[in-house]
Each structure stands twice: as structure tokens, then as C-alpha cells.
Amino acid sequence: MACEGIFILFIIYYTIEEILEIKKHKLKYFKSFWNVLDIIVIFLGYVAVIFNVYRTLAVGDLLKGLLEDNKQYANFDSLGFWQTQFNNMVAVAVFFAWIKVFKYISFNKTMTQLSATLSNCAKDVGGFAVMFFIIFLAYAQLGYLVFGTQVRDFSTFEDAIFTLFRIILGDFDFHALEAANRVLGPIFFITYVFFVFFVLLNMFLAIINDTYAEVKSNIASQKSEFEIGDYFKKGYQKMLDKLSFKREKILDIQKALKSADVNQDNKLDFEEWRANLKSRGHADAEIEAVFAKYDLDGDRILDEDEQKRMQEDLEGQKAELNDEIDEMERNKENQERTPQERQQC
């Protein structure tokens, strides 16, 4: 029940999200294949919920009737039929959900090459498919008419089509064809294997290979728009920048401790402290928070002991930040080395 509830919440969330996108992009929303796929998955999700509710209610009603009259015939045919349809629908929904993974494969250069290859060769493959199916269906019709009355695998036109697909995969019964027709059987088999397997199938692979080589050369000549490696590098650099920024703030505070005591009385009042740090670009809230942390007696003045305690804390924080920055920079340099350079180290 918990998982079903979470599933419904996700469906509602994504429904709202898609409605907002449709409202924003209008009809342009439906020009994207991935958006249409999202709509299909959400629709199938709602159908699954409705099926599940109906199944639960139907089972409850059926069991209630059987409990009231135990001599009644338990007819589960209708329920079994709808359960089968539910399983089929869930299978299709899961299939489309997995297809959505292709939307995010641009994180990896290799997967980008594969997806670009499939999209770039679509027109060539479409043209090839027309020629392929003309020859393929011609052989299917020939096999059905010649062997249909004697070979079970060719008994119908549909069976003949599936049998020819199986021959491509190496699953065939040559002796059955030869026994059905000693002349046309071998001729049919040999010519089909030659034209479809050796010629057409290799033409198909050649189209894929040529397109893949072209895509690979294009990607090699230009930097990928966004890769997962770049994502981690940017995150790595952001962490370094944050640590460096914290260290700069600590250095500013240390400088303020030394220079803010204008009258040199070894007592740092809040106004002197505030004026010095404001000139260095610090916000009032930050200035107040740091000062209050070490102003233990609350007199708005840092005496020598309080200043000493602040200085010691700042030195400790700076040392920790320096260690973290050094370690991250070493890791970054190590990641940028080639495997051969790492072995030499």
C-alpha cells in the first residue's frame, strides 16, 4: 500500500509538472518526442491506478458473494481477463519508462555517439527497410505457396514471416524444405540466405558503421556540450572556490583584529570592528554574528583574552581549510593524469 501511495503521488506530481509545461509552451510542447513519451507514461500510470482499484473492488465483491453462498460457481474468467490486460499495460508502461533513459545519455560521450548514430541513420535505414521488406515479403509469399501444405512452419503467411526471421538467426529446418520440394526447397533456402543474410543484412550493418564513423569524427572535432565528467569537474571547482572564499573571509577577520584597534588600547569595540570589516565588503549580519560569538560578557568590546581566543579559533579554522584545499587539489591533479602517469607515480 505504501508503494502504491507513493506511485500515485508521483503520478500527480508529474501530471502537474506536464500541465505547467503545456501551459507554457502551448502546441510546441508536443513537437518533442520525449514530451509525448512523458504523456504516454503518465496516461498508462493513471490506467494502472484505475485497473488496480477496479481489480480490488471486483475481487472483494466476488469473494463476498462466494462467502454468502458457498455453492455458487466461482467464475474468475472475467477477472482473469482484466488481470492479463493489466499485466500487459504495466509491461508497456515499464518499457516506455526505460526508453526515457535515452533522454539522459548525453552525460556520457560514448552513449551520445550511439544515440546520434541511430538518429542520423534513420532516413537511410528507412529507405533500406523498404527494399528489405519487398524482398523479404516476396520470399515469405513464395515459401507459403510452395511449402504451406507440407511444412508446418509455412502453413500460414504469418508463420512464414516468422520462420524467415528465424532463418536469419540461424534457426531453420533445411531437411523439411528439401523433403517438401527437392528442387525449389534448396533453391529457396540458398537464394534467401544469400540475398537476405549475406547482401541485405551486411548493407544494413554498413549503413550503421558508416554513420557511426561519421558521428565519431564529428564529436571528436568538437567538444561535447555537456558530459558527466565536466559536471563533476565543475562541482569540484565550486567546492574549491567555496573553501577559498571561506579562507579569504578568515584572513579578512584576522586583518581586522590587527588593524581595527585604532586607538591602540588593546580593546576592540564593535564600531571599530564593524567599520573595518564593512570596508572589506562584509555584511552587517555576518559582522554582528562573529563579534557576538567571542564577546562573552556582552559589553560590545573584545578584550585581550577574547581577541586571543578569536585569533586561535581563526588559525585553527584556516589550517583545516588549507588542508582540505590541498587535498582536493592533489586529488584533482591525480584525476587529470593519464593511467600511465599514475603508474609511474
TrEMBL record:
Predominant location category: membrane
Nucleotide-binding keyword on record: no
Subcellular localization, as worded in the UniProt entry: Cell projection, Cilium membrane; Cytoplasmic vesicle
Any GO MF annotation of the entry: calcium ion binding
InterPro entries per the UniProt record, alphabetical: EF-hand-dom_pair, EF_Hand_1_Ca_BS, EF_hand_dom, PKD1_2_channel, PKD_2, Polycystin, Volt_channel_dom_sf
Biased composition (Basic and acidic residues): 304-321, 328-345
Topology versus the membrane: Multi-pass membrane protein
Pfam family of the protein (one): PKD_channel
Stretches that traverse the bilayer: 33-54, 86-105, 125-147, 187-208
Family according to the record: Belongs to the polycystin family.
Protein name: TRP-like ion channel Pkd2
